[in-house]
Design the sequence.
């Protein structure tokens, strides 16, 4: 089994394959950089505190201290006002592969830096035995 190091970001092999198959959409630079830096593991070996696709998390904005529930999803399922955040967005790309307690950092379209702590992982498909979602 893969033993993650502190600060290491992990991704399941199936999520990696699906993200690389998003040919109809141009991957944003943030996601390309993220995919290049993640270590791949089989779905059954991903630790239960890592944000994978369709994970539900509570994040706390470092500036405002406001908490928000987000679900990391593919672009077709994105509903930002309902908390379904596309992995192609800067926020989504920053969450992918992070673990609980990590600080996700991204830039808004106007260039402002944002950061939020991943406080809790409410749901991870792999931890519930779903290795194909």
Sequence:
């Amino acid at each position: 089994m893969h033993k993650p190091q502190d600060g290491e970001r992990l991704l399941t092999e199936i999520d990696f394959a699906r993200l690389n198959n998003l040919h109809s959409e141009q991957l944003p630079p943030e996601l390309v950089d993220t995919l290049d830096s993640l270590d791949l593991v089989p779905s059954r070996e991903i630790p239960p505190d890592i944000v994978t696709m369709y994970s539900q998390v509570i994040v706390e904005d470092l500036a405002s201290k406001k908490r928000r529930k987000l679900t990391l999803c593919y672009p077709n399922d994105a509903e930002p006002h309902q908390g379904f955040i596309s992995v192609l967005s800067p926020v989504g790309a920053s969450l992918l592969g992070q673990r609980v307690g990590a600080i996700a950092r991204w830039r808004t379209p106007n260039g402002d830096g944002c950061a939020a702590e991943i406080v809790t992982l409410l749901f991870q498909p792999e931890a519930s035995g779903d290795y194909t979602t």
Observations:
- Strands lie at 10-12, 39-41, 56-61, 67-73, 84-86, 103-107, 113-123.
- The chain is about 15% helix and 30% strand.
- The chain has a mean pLDDT of 90.
- Residues 9 and 98 are 5 Å apart (CA to CA).
